[in-house]
Amino acid sequence: MLNGKRVLLIVAGGIAAFKCHDLIRKLRGQGAHVRCVLTDAGARFVTPLSLQALSEDKVYTDMFSLTDESEMGHIQLSRDADLLVVAPATANILARMAAGMADDLAATVLLATDKPVLAAPAMNVRMWSHAATVANVETLKKRGITFVGPNDGAMACNEYGPGRMSEPAEIVTAIEALLTTSSALKGKRALVTSGPTREAIDPVRYISNHSSGKQGHAIASALARLGADVTLVSGPVNVADPVGVKLVKIESADQMLEACLAAGKLDVAIFAAAVADWKSAKPADAKIKKKPGAPPPALELTPNPDILATVSKPGAQRPTLVVGFAAETENLVANAIDKRTRKGCDWIVANDVSPATGTFGGERNTVHLVTADGVEEWPTLAKDEVAARLADRIAQQLGRPRAVKAAE
Ligand code: C5P
Question: pTM of the full predicted structure?
Answer without folding.
Answer: 0.76
